[in-house]
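Sequence in, structure out.
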Amino acid sequence: MVSTRLLALALVLFGLVAAGAGCTPYKYTDDDETCTSAKPLPPGVAIKDELNHKAGDRSDCKEVKYFKDAMATVEFRLGTAFEKHDLKGVITLYDDEARVLDQRPVDPTIPKYDLEFKLKAQKPYYLKFEITEGSYGYSAQVQFKAVDPCASCDDDEECVEGKCKRKVKECDPECDEEAGELCDDGECKYQCDDSCQKKRGYVCEAATGECIKVLKECKPSCKTGYVCNRRTGQCVASAPKCKCQPGEICQGGKCVKLGGGPQPCPAGQRRDASGACVVVVGEPAIDPTGPITGSISNTARAPDGTVLYINRGERHGVKVGKRGTMCGQSFVVSNVYATRSKAKTAATIEQIGACTTFSLPR
């Protein structure tokens, strides 16, 4: 008799629990109501849970975290393909400082909800599912994919080694290197001091930006892809073209910062039009730690002294405000260009006399 009564009581209690929980296709859990007790959502695994408004289980919170920057897509599925759910509420995405990043209203007419967001490495994000009515099961799943570093590039930018950089304009037609020109962001620019064009027997060497004396011409003329080394009279291969950003110049097929070009050639050598080091009789070695030396290409009388034009510029390390000397007289650099500079001295042209060299500390 006792066993019969106990069995009947057990059946009644089981019926009450079943009635309170509701009939759902998922396992019932209610220990993740707040984001302080959020359960982690592992990648690629559909985590099943349920909400039951009448039973008091009205919110769940899941944590999303990844070891590197990524795009996260969280999918919530409610009900099944053959049965509508009855949940009404909202799914809210928070960052680790409780700021709302996204929010989706939930109603029985929509069985699937996707939230996509960019997350930072090791930073937790929270998805809180709150309901105002209904009782049903759902599943949540997260997938991660690598962040496209150049997805934010504008139309005037291009992706270069994972970074957005401004597109560099090409010169069309190509610049005439034999005439001392190189392409600078869509514009052919003369690389030497303008006075070089007036010197008879001298030409501008585009690769170095120096005005050199023509010792030998190339005969016959160099074919396409080659330029004439006017010191040796030999055709040498042109340096490969490269697209350089503003503040850079193409040297030896590589973009280098102005003033930060290739290492100096060994003693007795200098770079030719192709960027290669060639032997030049009597050419002094360049000391990268020593002063910047060069020649004064032109002078102009000024009311309070003399304006100087020197054949060294930003590419060589010259900076505005630098003080230099020339044959015992001092000067100050006022304007700096790629391969030349403008300076001012209190000395008169008569005091400068035949001085043609200068020195600038680095």
